[in-house]
Amino acid sequence: MSDAPNTSDDRPVARQDFATGTRDASPSSHDTDNGHTVGSDRPFYMAFALIGATYVVMILLMLLADFVYMIQGTVTSGTSFVDWLTKNPIVDALRDDAIRYSIALTLISCTITAILSVFVAVPIGYLMSRHEFRGRNFLDAVLDIPIVLPPLVVGLSLLIVFQYVPPTVSRAVVYEIPAVVLAQFMVACAFAVRTMRATFDQIDARREQVALTLGCTRAQAFGLVVLPEARRGVLTAATLAWARALGEFGPLLIFAGATRRKTEVLSTTVFLELSVGDIAAAVAVSLIMVFAAVSVLIVARLWGSRSLTI
């Protein structure tokens, strides 16, 4: 009676040591079937790390350059640290009534935009994630249009749309504060929709089905089961929409204008300060925007979802 054939694979398996870029295996495992030797993976990872590090360093250099420029322009040989804290471009900017107005309008408009974006993104993201329907691919492409369109085109298109609405509505929106919110919303909402769709994709649909079988309506199952599980995604969508609205410039310039103490937000303040040659003030406002964006990013990282892909 012959022995049963050995169906197990006795070949040694090479284990990857990502810290050193080498493989841990017996000598015979370094010889592949075609006779080639498997060498160290360190050059591969070093090349990838170098490419990634170049981009990261460029981001840090941009931020560092702003700080260095601000310090060089205000610090002299006789300036103490306490004096610099009380008199620097950021403090001077905060003392300017026009810039304070732009900060207040930015905070209000970005918050309204984030709330509206989540309000729209939750139902769209849920329907796109849970249901197949005719025209779904077309709708998916339409939702990406604000992301891929040049920002100036978004503002110009909004301006043209309001040429065909009643004059009373047009005068109340175009080049007024509502135009600021609408221009920010048209772009920021698209990012919130992508975030909410990814959130609902990660939620197990079976729990919702169990709630339905226990007698819940669709609305009850959504409110009691799905929405609580999506709370981190909702926070991520809101913070992402808020940050995107903060950096919006092109649509605002075309559709809302950049009028001092009227439709001026922080992004247009940078433009206005540069247009009059006040680079120090422009850098100071830019650093205020960086601080706001980093704060929102910290909130999203601490309390939002970290596994969402857009």
In short:
69% of the residues lie in helices and 2% in strands.
Explain the overall architecture.
It is a single chain. With 310 residues, this protein is mostly helical. It has a domain at 89-303: MetI-like fold (Orthogonal Bundle), CATH 1.10.3720.10. The chain is 69% helix and 2% strand. The chain has helices at residues 42-74, 81-86, 89-95, 97-130, 136-148, 151-161, 167-173, 177-201, 205-213, 218-229, 231-246, 250-256, 266-275, 279-303; strands spanning 15-17, 22-24. The protein has a two-stranded antiparallel sheet with strand order 1-2. Helix 5 (136-148) crosses helix 8 (177-201), helix 6 runs parallel beside helix 12 and helix 8 runs antiparallel to helix 12. The longest helix has 34 residues, at 97-130. The radius of gyration is 27 Å and the shape is globular. Mean pLDDT is 82; it is low at 10-14 and 25-31.
Tell me, rounded to a whole number, the average pLDDT. Answer: 82
Q: Kindly report the spatial arrangement of strands forming the biggest sheet.
A: 1-2
**Uncertain segments of ≥5 residues (pLDDT<50)?**
10-14, 25-31
Strand content: under 5%
The ordered string of helix (H) and strand (E) elements is EEHHHHHHHHHHHHHH
- Helicity range of the residues? 55-70%
- The CATH topology assignment of the domain at 89-303 is MetI-like fold
* Shape type: globular
Count of DSSP-assigned helices: 14
Gross CATH architecture of the domain at 89-303: Orthogonal Bundle
Determine the N-to-C terminus distance: 61 Å
Q: Give the class from helix and strand content and strand pairing.
A: mainly alpha
CATH superfamily of the domain at 89-303: MetI-like
Q: What's the number of extended β-strand segments?
A: 2
Q: Tell me the name of the CATH class of the domain at 89-303.
A: Mainly Alpha
How large is the radius of gyration? 27 Å
For the sheet with most strands, the description reads:
2 strands, antiparallel
